Amino acid sequence: MWGAVTVPLEIDWFFQDVSAHGWIHIATIPVFTGVIGFLINWTGLIMLFSPVRFHGVTIPGFKQLARVLPRKLQEVPGFLQGGVGWQGIVPARAAKMGSIAVDKAIAKLGTPGEFYQQLEPDKIAEHIVQVFEPDMPRMIEDIMEREHPNLWRDLPVPARKAIIARVQAQMPTVVHGITGEIGVHIDQLLDPKIMVIDHFEANPALVVRIFRDFGQKELNLMVAFGFIFGFILGIPVAMIDHWFGLWWLLPILGIIVGWVTNALGMWLIFEPPEPKRILGIRFHGLFLRRQDEAAEVYAQIIADDVITLERIGDFLLDGPRGDRTRQMLATAMRPAIDQAAGPVRGAVRIAIGTKKFDSIRDAVANEAVDRTITPFRDPEFSKRQADKIRTLVSARTKELPPRDFVDMMRSAIKEDEWMLYAHGAIMGFAGGVIHLLLFGVGGK
């Protein structure tokens, strides 16, 4: 009974005390912290995603100075390059996000062999034959005229046509053998991690699009919650400021409110990965609630822009293991070229010499490798095959444990989130100072 009487008496005292010193000062604090919370999360999203490329100025000597700064400050975009400015945290960490995306998710979505099989090697072979075959006569003539013009000129036209016809007749078998050979060695020839990291680093806007395309609704909600969190946190701040009446208290409390508001916003999006009930209220990370929908968007981006037949072709020939690919394919082509010479192979080898014969064969094989892989780079064909990759990535992304899905999206920026929190703290401090200048010291 005593407790039931005491609380109303304390509340009544507080109301009398507040009325004596003015309601405006108290009431405006939660409104201020709510507006500041909204602005913190709104500008925080801008910091997270914009600009896509670094904007700033280079200061002479700052690059050397930055190397002795604390490690956290070295992480600020541009500092280690001697620049003062800003680049969105997500695009600035595009390569790192690509690396983590591979480790946490893409490596679990499928092996290089699985991705390659989804692209249907038999259809790739048919497409190569279709594209390559019309160019075969011209290619053989060009090589022969370059490598041994006298031999080619002395050959009767029917003999030339017979050689070309033999090569064309063997093309489907040879190409199917080549695409099969690529499939057997794809794990050694193709490195999805390097492919993804290079592409993300060269196209940071793509990483931003991954977040934006399936998370814009949640990001907007995070901004709205900034006001709610700020307003709620402003209520105890108003009471403390009123009771103690110290001029420095509101700016200091503003720092705490700003930091906590941003931290709560990030937590709202990513945590908890599994649904949890706290005091009967269900909590679940906003991104995680739509993992299946996010998986479809993510898979579409990966299939359209990252792991495509076109980019696989580029990586196979021009990537770090391109020399190995060319050597392997040329080796696979040489027996077919030997056979194309037919029954006159021995005579030709004797007539022009083994060394010259081998150089012609190698020239044909090496040029054929480039032309064989060229159809991989056909954008239209690559786009048609992308649906198979999209289906695989979508299915596997939906199966990812929620924690792995969170890590895929958050790990690359998690260690940089302190910048967002610090930004919130600075804005909270500024809000406290502005309120102090407008309304004076609490409790006065």
UniProtKB/TrEMBL annotation:
Keywords: Membrane, Transmembrane, Transmembrane helix. Coiled coil: none annotated. The chain crosses the membrane at residues 23-49, 219-240, 246-270, 418-441. It comes from the Bacteria. The keyword GTP-binding does not apply. This is DUF445 family protein. The lineage of its organism: Bacteria, Bacillati, Actinomycetota, Actinomycetes, Propionibacteriales.
